[in-house]
Amino acid sequence: MKIASWFAVAVTATFLSGAAVAGAExxxxxxxxxxxxxxxxxCSACHEIDKPLSxxxxxxxxxxxLVQMTGRGADISxxxxxxxxxxxxxxxxxxxxxxxCHTKEQVYDREQTLADWEKTVAEMARKQPDLIxxxxxxxIIAYLTLVLGPAASSTxx
Length: 157
Known about the structure:
The protein is mainly α. The protein has one domain. The chain is 64% helix and 0% strand. The protein has eight helices and no strands.
């Protein structure tokens, strides 16, 4: 494997704070799917799910918000926090990067496989090389595959 590929893998692993011990079968799409389900089931126990989804925040802000929520009585394990933060951070990466040029509706109008999203995001990253890092591209691809892949159910995104 080339050094650049190893670097991209390391950056992606760093991006996903909770994925350090994840098994090889735990793909990024699978991890984000677990994060989405955990987010929906955990956070909806106390409030409407649209409330946190209306926020565009990065990793640090989501981590701080989950600390606040556990302080208010939310029962969230460390692994569940990591899954939730990974999912919401991936959602924010899409929202903050892709909507510079496109509306969410333009993107959400497409259904593509992982391979298709890899091609699409790679093309977009070539057009805007200073906008999307390799690590962000991988996370965006996984997020889009989760919410807009052929097997994706209606996510309400």
